[in-house]
Design brief:
Carbamate kinase, alpha/beta, homodimer, 14 strands
């Protein structure tokens, strides 16, 4: 029987709130067993781009990563945010170690091909690009890897990569080696049956139930890509996906997605 | 007999010149055996502070690291510079892994006490603050640790720390475990007998010769702190200190400092 491994993903909302981030890191230090943390970036990078007079370029709501933008997001994600999280976990007695995808060749991605849109220095990835051996060594040494959303192409180029995708790809790549639970942490307590009622958290969701709720339009549209992604991870061997509040990860209120 | 270990230190000059940095990284990839790289920061952090309207505060030529400055130097040193170096080494086929002092609790420092001057978020360190176990694990796994000049205090605070000091402190802390050679790489070929004659490189320098040359005023004043520091490392068990050109580390022209 493989060991259990929990992969937590946090997003920009909590990174922008130091007091909330500290609550999350303290709660994370109380979660037993081996863990990996994946984090996105907050609005700091956008604020700095603006302060430097670099206008964000968006196509259909997705940022174009030109060279100047890549520099700034690398500074924020791999520098400030990653090191503040690592130092914050060390404060809680957790031996965290921060990584970009270039470090130890952890995540090798491909620059997204230019089609109608040139997204610039953006990386797409597959499980084959994950250096699971390094992660297993670090976890075996009692470390908590903290992964930011910067990858590389192996040819010296850093690439900006979606943090949700990194978390689910890590989970899929590690599924042959661990019983992986993937925890998406955000500002709500889980998947809500009624988006206006924070108490309407679904405790459990199977693919069948999800299809029914999707068809009836009960689940908020914004949750659909995350849930599609989550069920794809379950189908690919991840044991469990949990959708929960970043401030309450040790509470029982959450949505657990199960393969059946 | 302990294994050999080479610790290389590069400074801001080469970091500001991408083409030169690439030459250094390629040459570094050709150096056999286990290695550690320590890097300072270039002028990018100062440029950005200026662009953001944050005036550098200097006392006796030393920067005061206030909270805003710490954020920027963390972004540059631990983010942009560290990850560009790591990605550049990966391109050369070297499995580099970037670290701040917070990562894996690699370097725990003390915030410099406030006396007549408050240097702000600056860290002072001793060999006791170095996690030699982590470095030995990473080196044993075939990785090349790339250390930036950001440390932490273990209580969640990141600290700006002198890169020369980090390199010599790492060398001293690792001396019981390896035959350590500490390589200070800069823009000259070594210690010059005549600062105006680039060909006047001293091939070898013992403490006795150094004291004679120091007394006669032959060595450039700017080299004295570096050399004092280097001989202190030799006295503390480091096998060899090398002063050499960052662009020519595999050439034979260099100054080798020996204990006797």
């Amino acid at each position: 029987m493989n060991d259990a491994l929990k992969i937590f993903k946090i997003g920009g909302g909590i990174i922008d709130e130091p007091a909330q981030l500290r609550v999350f890191l303290r709660e994370l230090s109380r979660v037993p067993g081996p863990k990996v943390l994946v984090h996105g970036g907050g609005k700091g990078a956008s604020d700095m781009l603006r302060a430097l007079g670099i206008a964000p370029q968006l196509v259909d709501g997705r940022r174009i990563t030109d060279a100047a933008t890549l520099d700034i997001v690398t500074m924020f994600y791999a520098g400030k945010t990653n090191k503040q999280i690592v130092a914050g976990l060390q404060r809680e007695g957790v031996n965290a170690l921060g990584l970009s995808g270039a470090d130890g060749n952890l995540i090798r991605a491909q620059k997204r091909p230019v089609t109608e849109v040139d997204y610039g220095f953006v990386g797409d990835l597959t499980e084959a690009g994950i250096n699971t051996g390094l992660l297993r060594q670090l976890l075996g040494a009692g470390l908590l890897p903290v992964c930011c959303a910067i990858t590389h192409d192996g040819q010296g180029q850093l690439l900006n990569t979606n943090a949700d995708t990194i978390a689910s790809t890590l989970a899929r790549a590690l599924a042959p080696h661990y019983r992986v639970a993937l925890h998406y942490c955000f500002e709500k307590d889980g998947v809500l049956l009624d988006v206006n009622d924070p108490a309407s958290v679904l405790p459990r969701l199977t693919p069948g139930q999800y299809q029914e709720l999707k068809a009836s339009g009960a689940i908020a549209a914004g949750m659909l890509p995350k849930l599609d992604n989550a069920f794809a991870a379950l189908a690919a061997g991840v044991e469990q996906v949990v959708i929960e509040n970043a401030l309450n990860i040790n509470e029982t209120t959450k949505t657990v997605l199960c393969p059946s």
